[in-house]
Specification:
Helices cover about 35% and strands about 15% of the residues. By secondary structure, it is an alpha/beta fold. The chain has a single domain, classed as Alanine racemase (TIM Barrel), CATH 3.20.20.10. The chain has an eight-stranded parallel beta sheet with strand order 7-6-5-4-3-2-1-8. Helix 3 packs parallel to helix 4. The radius of gyration is 17 Å and the shape is globular. The structure holds pyridoxal-5'-phosphate. The site of pyridoxal-5'-phosphate (PLP) has 14 residues, from strand 8 and helix 9.
């Protein structure tokens, strides 16, 4: 990016527009290469650490779905931009004392890996808003990554979350651990998709696979991603 300030209040609109159209081109090309329908993959722009002004510029380029990792940032930006018809996805680790802010300000939460957090979100979801869309984060890389439920524990968590009244369980999310260069980048996504398919009897309503980021969105789309989460390749590098 042209602007190297740690907190970029002056994102260059031309550069942002070019970044967005390039990411959209990559998504379309990967979707077509996989023989999937045009529009089968939604782009979620990960705006963590970036100011509300950058989100507004991205909205002016046609984006409406944004991902945030920190509850405080979500509250500030959703508040600052509340006149825009944006869809907010919370994608970061969740502490118990942040669930109310998340339940009140998100449309989706991708990072559920504990029943206790799901319970609190269901209790704290405001009555005037629809059910909160939920994805369970799965740790498909074993010990290499800290967040996410293990594949073995997934069916039981699905069972309990389905019973929570103010949540709508929609699918699965994963963040693969960095893999050795020689490894097929599609492997972790293949694994998540296989797990998703094993849930079909238990939860046929699930329709969402959140996987793929700036570096690996093509591999994720080839394996059936319905949402890719792209930060760096839209908003540039993060300095904080
Ligand atoms: C930061 C983040 C992303 C975006 O990663 P990039 O490599 O910048 O595209 C996607 N998903 C999650 C959960 C993140 O924390």
């Amino acid at each position: 990016m042209a602007n190297q300030l740690p907190y970029d209040h002056t994102m260059n609109p031309t550069e942002l527009a070019l970044n967005i159209s390039e990411v959209q081109r990559r998504i379309q090309s990967a979707t077509a290469a996989a023989g999937r329908a045009t529009g089968a993959v939604s782009l979620l722009a990960v705006s963590k650490t970036k100011p509300a002004g950058a989100i507004r510029l991205a909205y002016e380029q046609g984006l409406t779905e944004f991902g945030e990792n920190y509850a405080q940032e979500l509250v500030e930006k959703a508040g600052a931009l509340k006149e825009l018809p944006l869809c907010w996805h919370f994608i970061g680790p969740i502490q118990s004392n942040k669930t109310r802010a998340i339940a009140e300000n998100s449309d989706w939460v991708h990072s559920i890996d504990r029943l206790k957090i799901a319970h609190r979100l269901s209790e704290q979801r405001p009555a005037e808003r629809g059910p909160l869309n939920i994805l369970i984060q799965v740790n498909i890389s074993g010990e290499a990554s800290k967040s996410g439920v293990s594949p073995e524990a997934l069916p039981e968590l699905v069972h309990h979350i389905k019973a929570l009244p103010r949540l709508a369980l929609r699918g699965l999310m994963t963040i693969p651990a960095p893999a050795p260069l020689a490894e097929d980048p599609r492997l972790p996504f293949k694994h998540l998709r296989a797990l998703f398919e094993t849930l079909n009897d238990q939860a046929p309503e699930l329709d969402t696979l959140s996987m793929g980021m700036s570096a690996d969105l093509e591999a994720a789309i080839a394996e059936g991603a319905t949402h890719v989460r792209v930060g760096t390749d839209i908003f540039g590098a993060r300095y904080n």
